[in-house]
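Recap slide: CoA-binding domain-containing protein, sequence and predicted structure.
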Amino acid sequence: MAQRDDMRRFFSPQSVAIVGVPRKPDRFGGGSFLAKLLECGFPGKLFPINPGADEILGLKAYPSLSSLPVAPDLVIVSVAAAHVPAVLEECARLGVRHIHILSSGFKEIGTEEGGRLEERVRKIAGEMNLLIIGPNCMGPYCPSSRLTAWGAIPGMSGPVGVISQSGGITQRLTEYLFSMGIGTDKAVSIGNAAVLDTPDYLEFMAHDENVRVIAMYLESVGDGRRFFQLARRITKSKPIVVWKGGETGVGARTAASHTGTLAGNHALCEAMFRQSGITHVRSLHEWADAIIAFALLPKPQGRRVFLIGGGGGNSVGNSDTCIREGLDVPRLSEASMNRLRETVPVAGSIAGNPLDMWRIFDDPDYLLEILELAYDEPNADMLIVDRLIPRKAFHMEERADATAQIAKLMRKHLLEKPTVVTADSDGGDPELAAKGAALRAKFTSAGIPAYPSLQRAARALAHLYRSGRHL
């Protein structure tokens, strides 16, 4: 419990010292971190450490941590790997326990010296009771504290917690979720995880009430037994979505060069994920899609989906896609069929499931009527609703945006039947792509997950359904 409480300071420091800030911070490292913290409006005190500088980026520079007027809450270390142990010892003397080692050059480089330095870091931390993120990582990220030197800048607070062995992938995920209308409460890039390892962060986020879904990118797990036991307990109340790197021989070899870790047996990892209730994904798209579904939707009662859209070919293809993803596209009740036959013409449309009725794209009031029918339908557990971006090719006129009205009705019934939206804008047309992204972000920001294809929507719902079955 004490360590969980201690770890909060990583994400809400009142003061940050950066050891190793060049006088001209024009490249990645301590200087760029300082510049980004200033840019995002970090409200606390910032202390650049450089014995050869008096001022950096308008801030007073200090020759050492020992010369600071106060002990900082967080120290970011960005010096050559050989000098890191001395910085850790200075932190210990000053009573500073929260340290992020940005520097690389440890076990991940595959040399005897790199491994020896990492073991020295681990030994100092154990002897002096230090909490260390890294080495070789981007460290903590928290928009609510304006601790956003990386990731989506300035970012947006939301229900997602991220634990990742890749800074670049974490960066991309936070940006991706932000563009789709979902914020991140906390993220941590853990790199080699020499001291604090994956289970430590997992236990911390499990008890964080602001985090509703935990997203993880893993190449390895140091303490597999502890990880499994934690995950099996946590997934009963909070979903965990894992993208596992290093599943192939080439990927595993690359992981060893990336974080100095062994990727582990693929079959064993699969079994562990399945038995512990972890949702396993294999791409950034699938990761983000599942995260959004878990963050915004309740668990469905079953796997039966009602497809609401237009176009005969789309209806056929979409039905096939849902079945392949493990969902069901059932026949509707006779009561619903009778209601549909009153408004759906025999020629050029299909009254049923899937519903092929072009009018839903052009008449918001009619779509609302269809949605009410769908929420009353006893044979449907979930809804996928297609939205079309008006354009000349479809002989459609621009109309007033009814997104808010549609999303309001969907939210009203969300606990009854999880509902997602699709808005396809692929194909290379930049104007169409921009309109599609904006429309999806509007729905997601309003609490309704929106996806760029039915296949991605169906897979996200399938993950949601299977997760519910595990409980």
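The mean pLDDT is 92.
The first strand starts at residue 15 and ends at 19.
(End of recap.)
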